[in-house]
Amino acid sequence: MTVHDNVIAATQAWLASVVVELNLCPFAKVVVDRASLRLCVHESPEPLQLLQTLHEELLRLQASPDIETTLIIHPNALVDFYAYNDFLATVDEWLRSEGFEGVFQVASFHPDYQFAGTTPGDAENFTNRSPFPMLHLLRESSIDWAVASHPNVDAIPNTNMATMRRLGAETLSKRLEKCFDV
Asked: Using an 8 Å Cβ cutoff, are 117 and 110 in contact?
């Protein structure tokens, strides 16, 4: 198995055993089951090259209505969470400057994800922890549909954090590590 294959396999395991099984995103199962999720591995360690991949993937989403959403997995770029977090501001500015604001959003996942006001070991951080740093490209129209179709979309983050606290950081850490066993 190549490094690329291992990255994809670990990501698919994470999607199945964390995102879908724990229902962190009530809309993910449908996208995964329909195979309308694109997984893109960006192997360069250079963040500015990641912007080029982001651009290519947004253009691909615009041209391909059968792709609902894309995860850009970048195992070699922005492995430090604080550098990654700083880069997200660059991504937001870039989306505005390139005319993608209001069309797409970028959600963030990282192995060391940490919400403001938490400590690194807090269980709720696992709602956004993934095997590798990732950028999740979402269509604004899909977000609008999700908000309109879910009975209480505002409750999802609190429900997820409660689930993470109930399971505990140690259990969640083991679950995340197990994604690499594929």
From this structure: no
